[in-house]
Design a protein that fits this description.
36% helix, binds zinc ion, 236 residues, alpha/beta, TIM Barrel, eight-stranded parallel beta sheet, binds D-xylitol-5-phosphate
């Protein structure tokens, strides 16, 4: 079943606990935390101390998206802070297997992220290790950007790889997930939907999370009804 993961990047940072509680009432099942270092991406956000406070504010899994250089140096701190899922960028990890192993060794669920310009084939070998693959559908760094359409092909390709390899990892999508894009994203095969602006941008996170999730679930129902042969297609 598709899930909604609100990104707190577009929330009011002075009232994060309230924002998260509202999004949870609207159906959010995990919270997406964008960690930026001003080097890997041209923006700076939050780190382990904020994750530690969020841990006290919600029981939902904290999905920490590390847009940082040298993520290995911070894995232990994120674990101590209470992170549940940690994803690292393919582009930031010269020793990706080691980094994912480190996340696993700290009892967190590892994810790998691919930027819009990175082919999904490049992560083939590590797919059995990950809990989720995050397909960036904007160039990371800022909320409120427009969805890049070719991301749909990457999601479809990844879903085909997953079927053909017999794996169970989740496909997560981040960037420009909104009312006008969510149906196509779900139909392409994604089930973890990150949304910042579409949930928090209008200041009505409960209402807007609920509406976005309803649109996603409707697309999912249509998809499974129209694709009874799901699971049989091959990579091409
Ligand atoms: C972008 C972040 C996203 C961002 C998405 O670098 O990784 O999580 O918050 O924002 P929207 O949903 O507004 O595109
Ligand atoms: Zn993100």
């Amino acid at each position: 079943m598709v899930e909604l993961l609100p990104s707190i990047l577009s929330a009011d940072f002075a009232h994060l606990a309230d924002a998260i509680a509202a999004a949870e009432r609207g159906g959010a099942t995990a919270i997406h935390v964008d960690v930026m270092d001003g080097h890997f991406v041209p923006n700076i956000t939050v780190g382990p101390p904020v994750v530690k406070s969020l841990r006290k504010a919600t029981k939902l899994p904290l999905d920490c998206h590390l847009m940082i250089e040298n993520p290995n140096d911070f894995i232990a701190e994120f674990a101590d802070a209470g992170a549940d899922w940690v994803s690292v960028h393919y582009e930031a990890c010269p020793h990706l297997h080691r980094t994912l192993q480190l996340i696993l060794n700290h009892s967190m669920k590892p994810g790998v992220v691919v930027n819009p310009g990175t082919r999904v084939d490049l992560i083939l070998e590590i797919l059995p290790m990950v809990h989720h693959v995050l397909v960036m559908s904007v160039n990371p760094g800022f909320g409120g950007q427009e969805f890049i359409p070719f991301s749909l092909d990457k999601i479809r390709h990844l879903a085909a790889m997953r079927r053909d390899l017999g794996l169970q990892f989740k496909i997560e999508v981040d960037g420009g997930v909104a009312h006008d894009t969510v149906a196509a994203i779900v139909q392409a095969g994604a089930e973890l939907l990150v949304a910042g602006n579409a949930v928090f941008g209008a200041g009505q996170p409960e209402r807007d999370a609920r509406a976005l999730l309803a649109a996603a679930r409707q697309a999912e129902i249509l998809q499974s009804a129209s694709n009874p042969a799901d699971g049989k297609s091959k990579i091409h």
